[in-house]
Write a structure and sequence with these properties.
Blueprint: E1 2-3, E2 22-27, E3 30-35, H1 42-55, E4 64-68, E5 75-79, E6 84-85, H2 92-106, H3 111-116, H4 123-130, H5 138-150, H6 155-160, E7 167-169, E8 178-180, E9 185-187, E10 194-196, H7 198-207, H8 216-221, H9 227-244, H10 259-271
Antiparallel strand pairs: 1-4, 2-3, 3-5, 4-5, 6-8, 7-10, 8-9
Helix pairs in contact: 4-9, 5-10, 7-9, 9-10
């Protein structure tokens, strides 16, 4: 069991209709998160990330209060923070708040997270798509063929190189994980957190399906990142999303018909740049 910090802030977010990875119990000024799965160390990632943020002095995310990491299921107790989840059509002020929050998150040294695992490349996420059978859909098949050729470009070698700057990566930029309290954005759900780099984090955000109502290029211009690495990473994460949207994929039923074709075209457009 571990204890860190005081429950100084309130998390009063509206919860999604379906929570598959965890359950939340609200107790006064605290939230108890009970994990439904933890085979990837989700509970330890979250506890470490919240600790790193608190030690850096960031008023950005829930404060870690108590952890029962060896329980089955494991739990992490954290403070509640104010705000409601952003929608897929944020105002300009809210979008600026996201940029500010993410930039401040990247300033946090990921010391605790680094103890759980060092930086590693994300190429396996692209291999899930290119290592799968060729899709039957016309646009998806074209994207698959183009993705196979991508492995012969400079992108994989670029992404394999250790970045010059390492950051605390949130790696789960669903709009529901950004809470707006009227003045600032708070970030929640750090179960996918890992040591990452700015270009990769921005690629994960800009290519996430929940951000499709936002101009991705405009979003990317709001951050100062390595542009070559950003484009390479955007291509990689576009491949991963197309893999998730395969007929038996985990995302296909949660999105309207035709999303897979639109994603395939998006990948083709990125590969054509």
């Amino acid at each position: 069991m571990g204890k860190r910090g005081d429950a100084r802030f309130r998390w009063e977010a509206r919860l999604p209709a379906v929570v598959q990875t965890h359950d939340l119990a609200f107790r006064g000024d605290s939230v108890v998160k009970r994990y439904a799965s933890w085979d990837r160390g989700e509970h330890r990632r979250e506890w470490a990330a919240l600790g790193d943020i608190q030690q850096h002095g960031g008023v950005l995310a829930p404060c870690p209060v108590e952890a029962r990491l060896d329980d089955r299921p494991p739990t992490v107790t954290m403070s509640r923070v104010p705000g409601d989840p952003l929608t897929d059509q944020p105002t300009e002020v809210q979008l600026a708040g996201v940029v500010d929050a993410v930039t401040r998150l990247w300033a946090v040294p990921p010391r605790g997270l680094a103890e759980l695992g060092p930086w590693s490349d994300d190429l396996d996420f692209a291999r899930r798509f290119t290592g799968a059978p060729r899709p039957t859909g016309r646009v998806a098949a074209r994207a698959y063929d183009a993705a196979q050729l991508w492995w012969r470009t400079e992108d994989p070698a670029l992404l394999r190189r250790r970045p010059a700057t390492l950051v605390l990566g949130h790696r789960d930029p669903n709009f529901a994980n950004y809470l707006w309290d009227g003045r600032q954005v708070w970030i929640v759900d750090f179960e996918d957190a890992a040591v990452s780099d700015p270009a990769t984090e921005l690629a994960i955000m800009s290519e996430h399906l929940s951000w499709r109502g936002i101009d991705a290029d405009d979003l990317c211009r709001r951050f100062d990142v390595d542009q070559a690495r950003l484009l390479a990473a955007r291509r990689l994460w576009a491949m991963f999303w197309l893999w998730l949207l395969r007929p038996d994929g985990s995302s296909v039923r949660r999105n309207p018909p035709g999303t897979d074709d639109r994603q395939a075209q998006r990948l083709l457009d990125l590969l054509d740049r």
